[in-house]
Amino acid sequence: MIEVARGQWGISALENMVQDFELVGLGGRVQFLDREQLLSRIQIDDVEAGVYAKDCTVLHPGQLVRHWPR
After folding, report:
1. What radius of gyration, in Å, describes the C-alpha atoms of the chain?
2. pLDDT computed for residue 69 by the predictor
3. Alpha carbon of 52 to those of 7, 10, 38, 70: distances in Å?
4. What is the percent of the chain with per-residue pLDDT over 90, rounded to a whole number?
5. 3-class secondary structure, 4
6. DSSP characters for 23-63?
7. What pTM does this model have?
8. What span, in angstroms and rounded, lies between the C-alpha atoms of 38 and 32?
9. Mean pLDDT over the full length of the chain
């Protein structure tokens, strides 16, 4: 997962996200990326910074309810 800040106003939210992960002992699973680090991973216009999470998944809530457990 990569969360991006499209402007300077979004950087503090990303920093808070990293701090939240650190508070629950998962700081090693996320990395704050400055503009250059972010652009080396993904090409996106008007980006200031990002947070990269090594472990991430997306669950569809409807399928989770209808098909859980199998």
Report:
1. 15
2. 63
3. 17, 15, 9, 31
4. 67
5. strand
6. HTT-GGGEEEEEHHHHHHH---SS--EEEEESS-----HHH
7. 0.74
8. 9
9. 89
